[in-house]
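Researcher: Here's the sequence for the chain we discussed earlier.
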Amino acid sequence: MITALVIENFKVFRHIEFKDLKRMTLISGRNNIGKSTILEAMFLYMDHLSVESFGKLNGFRSTVGMGVEGLWEPLFYQMDTNNPIHITVTDNDRTGHLLYERDDQYLPSGISGLSEEVLANFRADTRSSYSLACSFSDSNYKEQGHFTLNKNSVLRDFTTSLAGNENLPMKPTKFMNNLFFRNNNIINDIGRVELSGEKQELVRALKEMDPSIEDIVTLVVHGITQLYIKIAGELRPLQYAGDGIAKLLSICSSIMCQQNGLVLIDEIESGFHYSMYGKLWNLIDHISQRANCQVVATTHSYELISGVIDNIDKCNDFCYYRIGKKKENTVACRFDYTMLQGALTSEMEVR
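Model: Thanks. This is the structure I predict for it:
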């Protein structure tokens, strides 16, 4: 489980740090303070070896980045590539460091599996811009390498300290936001849950929102596999069962499929009626315990924050961060369960 996070020179943050994160961590703050960016930093750390990681970050915000100006420069604080990005994560008793910095000298050459013609195209484009140097360390494990761009793709050239240049496996991680929920096809996740014998847990979760729900059914209709919800004896396509049902099913199945992993949920309250917030916390608490999955979520909702109280089993497995400004710096103010309960009882503003 991630217990600490430090972000430096990444997007809106010059520096911000989080200590003693818990299995369920909730983050709030005003608009444009950087809540989504915190989740993106955690995702990038876990996905940093993928050549698609930069495109995924753009996809989370429905933007299309081209070239260094669209893919890399928006990642740097104030788009200043002279200050390296540094993301530090403590996962239980191990601390890893991820560093990105501009490199105007590197040119790709002699990369296995690529022709000289392809490499020449990358070199030509890199000469007119720059490469992105990346290093990663975790205990005795180290990675060192570069990303370069041409007009159509990203090239990754890395070496590691493991035999055969193998990579250290990272924690399975999923990033979920409103765009994800609109476009997500969860059939594969539902299939994995059913194969594991856990489908009734999903049905139980949906019953918390609508007691008339009886089952989740996968059917092939006109050659297309579709999900149906059985409600009061009637099968309805998932898309007609309501946004709240679809989102709850997506969240719960994702957590169940990320065994020993990490699920990041942006604006978790969206799509749910406020009367469901307590039950939502109870379900996330129960399912994440079973999957040993850490959940880090953001919210704007006071009702969702207050819904934590009396709806989780292990108070020590929860913490809340309020992101705000202190002079020119962005800071994270931490509340444990007891502190948050006292603040809410005193009617303090905690959003």
